[in-house]
Write a structure and sequence with these properties.
Layout (H helix, E strand, L loop, with lengths): L5 H14 L10 H15 L2 H9 L8 E5 L5 H13 L9 E2 L22 E5 H11 L21 E2 L6 H12 L3 H4 L9 E2 L1 H5 L8 H13 L3 H24 L3 H4 L8 E2 L7 E2 L1 H10 L23 H6 L7 H8 L18 H9 L6 H4 L3 E3 L5 E5 L5 E7 L5 E4 L2 H26 L19 E3 L4 E10 L5 E3 L3 E2 L3 E3 L14 E9 L5 E10 L27
Antiparallel strand pairs: 1-3, 2-3, 4-5, 6-7, 8-9, 9-10, 10-11, 12-16, 13-14, 13-15, 13-17, 17-18
Helix pairs in contact: 2-5, 2-17, 4-5, 5-10, 9-10, 10-17
């Protein structure tokens, strides 16, 4: 076989190092794992049912919603434009239309097939949720807020001392072109980044929960139908971004603040680095074969696991959130004991306790752990639930090395993936709740249009709107609501316009501090007969491009 010229060999070797670059610093794979977690959470949630109930069966998961680029500020508009370019063709998150998509009136008809109208984007409700998954990594430096601090899990800033600033900058830049300055926010301090706790309180970020709640409120209380659809679509994008963050916190490297883990070698190829756990889950489970687990014990279908987003991160007294389980039950790639000698005459339990004391796992997680088999040149450290926390091997020079392998990752995935689904489902049911009535209330057990306000809620108000056939809403003065079940006041429908309907909207603040917004249709007038000009003549087809509803 003819030998390659030494110079050509060097060039090929350099090219392999360049083109087999590290994966972007992300946890679950976007197009497989994140997409599968979202789809399963949507199926388990009551989102579609609640949207249909609130709209009188007019709007659900697959109903088209439009975002008006003119209603977005410059930063939001750029984010949406870049997110649209980032989405994969088979993700179901690529919207029709958008700025520049509609050619002039004299353009050939075939050039208008992707045009919606003006600069409007159009996508289904579930599509906007999916777009939020991609938007949360646009740009990729947004990933920095998906971590917890290694020392203080509730700190608002974090850093990974195992990865020097210069090394991190070099690796992150090679990974996806993001500079060190863009990955670490200068706000908390040099070399630090804001954690998820700071993001939950961020008032400036276009996708943060506080901005999402503004859009959710406008999706009920805006005057025109186009405005409400726009704000609902933007709120769904924000909700998808929120699910992305919470799902990432079910990854041990994120929960441990282990940034170095994202640059672990994936193969012997130079520069082939990434997060091994992510790659294992992507390859082993793909998009349609996730370990689904069961529903949370004792949780009513459609009921949130907690009343606040903060409790969806770590859980509360009743259950453990994804970040708590990933941090306190499992180890990440760079948080393992260093290579060391082990005494064969010590028990498997004693050695396991000694090794786990060198990690970030609490004493409760180390209780009952043991090496098996022991003594042995290779084996695993198992917890009391027989889950493989890490593997060990005798390196041959008197020391044992510790690492995570396929068995360890499978044990992690079988616990953390179902938990990520449960939390995602719960957040959807928290953000898009049903009408607040007592469970099981009927016309015989309670007023059929009653409102049931829990005692711990504050600021409860009832908004009454008369909606015209064109979707225009006229609001009356809000009515204050007290705790307990109470009937809807009489006489709400006397001002209903012809062909319109009466809309009730309950606005309150939950015990956990999160806003509650739900609406319901009281009644609907007979529709206005169409004008003669609006009737379709025999053989006439409906227009393919719908016009927007009037403002």
């Amino acid at each position: 076989m003819k030998m390659m010229h030494p110079l050509l060999t060097a060039i090929v070797g350099f090219a392999c190092g360049v083109f087999i670059a590290p994966r972007p610093a992300q946890a679950w794979d976007l197009s497989t794992t994140h997409a599968a977690l979202l789809d399963e959470a949507v199926v388990r949630s009551a989102l579609h049912r609640n949207l249909m109930d609130a709209s009188g069966l007019r709007r659900g998961l697959f109903s088209p919603l439009r975002i008006d680029a003119a209603r977005l500020d410059d930063r939001q508009r750029q984010l949406f434009l870049h997110a649209q370019r980032r989405v994969h063709a088979d993700s179901g998150a690529r919207a029709l239309g958008g700025p520049g998509s509609c050619p002039g009136a004299d353009a050939p008809p075939q050039t208008r097939r992707f045009c919606v109208e003006k600069d409007l984007w159009e996508l289904s409700a579930i599509g906007w949720l999916r777009l939020g998954l991609f938007a949360e990594l646009t740009p990729s430096s947004r990933q920095r807020r998906h971590f917890l601090d290694a020392t203080d899990p509730h700190a608002k800033a974090w850093r990974d001392d195992a990865l020097s600033d210069a090394r991190f900058r070099f690796r992150q830049t090679r990974s996806n072109g993001a500079s060190f300055a863009s990955f670490f926010s200068p706000t908390p301090g040099a070399g630090q980044a804001a954690t998820v706790w700071a993001w939950l309180e961020d008032k400036e970020d276009a996708l943060a929960p506080l901005r999402m709640y503004e859009h959710l409120a406008a999706s009920h209380l805006a005057v025109t139908a186009n405005e409400r659809d726009h704000h609902l679509a933007v709120a769904l994008v924000c909700a998808g971004a929120l699910l992305h963050v919470l799902q990432d916190l079910a990854v041990p490297a994120h929960a441990h603040g282990d940034a170095a883990a994202f640059f672990s070698p994936l193969s012997d190829a130079r520069g082939d680095r990434g997060l091994p756990f992510q790659e294992f889950v992507r390859i082993a489970y793909g998009r349609g074969n996730l370990p689904l687990g069961g529903h949370a014990a004792g949780v009513v279908t459609g009921a949130p696991l907690a009343d606040s987003l903060r409790d969806h991160v770590f859980g509360d007294d009743r259950w453990e959130g994804p970040a708590a389980v990933a941090r306190y039950r499992f180890l990440s790639e760079s948080r393992l004991p260093a290579a060391q000698s082990l005494q064969a005459d010590e028990s498997a339990e004693e050695i396991a306790a000694f090794l786990l004391a060198q990690t970030e796992l609490p004493a409760a997680a180390a209780s009952g752990a043991a090496l098996a088999p022991w003594p042995s040149p290779r084996g695993y450290v198992y917890d009391r639930h027989a889950r493989a926390l890490m593997a060990f091997v005798d390196s041959g020079d008197g020391e044992y090395q510790f690492y995570l392998d396929e068995r360890s990752y499978r044990m992690q995935a079988e616990v953390l993936l179902p938990l990520a689904i449960q939390v995602s489902r719960s957040v959807l049911d928290l953000l898009f709740p049903p009408w607040p009535t007592l469970p099981g209330a009927t016309a015989t057990t309670g007023p059929p249009l009653a409102v049931s306000i829990p005692a711990a809620w504050t600021g409860a108000r009832l908004h009454v709107a008369q909606e015209s056939a064109e979707g225009q809403r006229a609001f009356a003065t809000p009515v204050r609501l007290v705790s307990g079940q109470q009937p809807i006041p009489d006489g709400l429908e006397r001002d209903r316009p012809t062909g319109g309907r009466t809309i009730l909207i309950v606005e309150a603040k939950r015990a956990g501090g999160e806003p509650y917004l739900a609406e319901r249709i009281v009644g609907q007038s007979p529709p206005v007969p169409p004008r003669e000009d609006d009737r379709l003549r025999p053989g006439e087809a409906k227009p393919l491009v719908r016009s927007t509803r009037p403002e």
